[in-house]
Design goal:
Layout lengths: L2 H23 L3 H21 L3 H24 L8 H13 L5 H19 L8 H6 L9 H9 L1 H21 L12 H24 L7 H17 L11 H25 L10 H25 L10
């Protein structure tokens, strides 16, 4: 590494630590959310520097983009934030003067010290499981090793991740119904961006899904981009027709986990083991799983943005 690269990485690491400290210590929730989004973007850049573009795509789309939108939507529904700016400023000054404001910094320092010690204790070179993955890549059905691990070699992890997303949505729905959508028309800027970006985001999602077999991409990245299109439509006041907000929406939400379970049962009958794909058909089976998972992930993340169970009152 050159001196410039070392300086860039040092500044990037210090920036992440500073943003982490500021977002944890700020009593202003809106400011903390904005800092969290900035932290996610810098973290995506850090993953790029670590040669992990798949994780960087997921971090930028889910960690910074969609999670930031979810936090902003949750903040908008908090009635406690309507007290005014003066109370917020006074609370911020009181928080910074209190000893409790140093606890996040101490925790971050201990965590950073532990991570630094762990990294420095690692061997200079560790092969890990890379040789095994490379040796069996031809039988996985894909060329991208990340997709091979997530959809073939360790498909259980991806199945459990989708189940966790679905359980999170059920937890949000158990709280109550979503707020009624506003009937006003979106402004000209939002309307223009919605018409321009929605088709573009759908094309990007389709590209990430297709390219995931041999390059960074895949179901989670494509699903998060598809969810971003859904969030943009929701911000513009768009909503599903009432006939699609009951059973059809729920079928899409459970389609991903159900497809994995059905594929596991099918491979158990054919191969004798769960999620062990036949090498000749592994590529097409993984593509089918990723396609269904993309729609399920996108619908789940967009439904989380609503902040409650969607209302589906039928019109007489």
């Amino acid at each position: 590494m050159t001196l410039l690269a070392w300086l860039f990485d040092i500044l990037l690491g210090l920036g992440l630590l500073w943003l982490g400290w500021r977002l944890l210590s700020s009593p202003d929730l809106f400011k903390a959310i904005v800092l969290f989004i900035a932290f996610g973007l810098l973290m995506a850049l850090a993953w790029v520097r670590l040669d992990a573009p798949d994780v960087a795509l997921a971090e930028a789309a889910i960690g910074a983009g969609l999670t930031g939108a979810l936090l902003l939507a949750a903040l908008a529904r908090l009635s406690s934030m309507e007290s005014g700016k003066d109370a917020t400023v006074q609370a911020e000054k009181a928080w910074l003067k209190s000893p409790a404001s140093w606890f996040p910094a101490i925790i971050m320092l201990l965590l950073a010290s532990g991570l630094g010690y762990t990294i420095l204790s690692l061997a200079p070179y560790a092969a890990g499981l890379s040789p095994e993955v490379a040796a069996n890549l031809d039988s996985s059905g894909v060329i991208n090793p990340v997709t091979a691990v997530l959809l073939n070699f360790r498909g259980y992890d991806t199945l459990l991740e989708m189940v966790v997303l679905l359980l999170a949505l059920l937890g949000v729905w158990s709280i109550g119904g979503a707020a009624e959508p506003h009937e006003g028309k979106p402004g000209p800027v939002l309307d223009f961006l919605t018409r321009l970006l929605t088709p573009l985001l759908i094309l990007v999602a389709a590209y990430l899904l297709w390219v995931g077999a041999h390059a960074p991409g895949g179901a989670f990245q494509a699903g998060s981009v598809l969810a971003a299109a859904g969030v943009l439509l929701l911000l513009a006041g768009w909503c599903l027709p009432p006939r699609l907000m009951a059973l059809p929406l729920r079928l899409v939400l459970v389609a991903g986990p159900c497809a994995f379970i059905a594929m596991a049962a099918l491979t158990l009958l054919i191969q004798g083991q769960l999620l062990e794909f036949p090498p000749a058909q592994a590529g097409i089976l993984i593509l089918v799983l990723e396609t269904v998972a993309m729609f399920s992930i996108g619908a789940t993340l967009a439904a989380l943005f609503l902040g409650g169970r969607p209302q589906h009152k039928e019109t007489p």
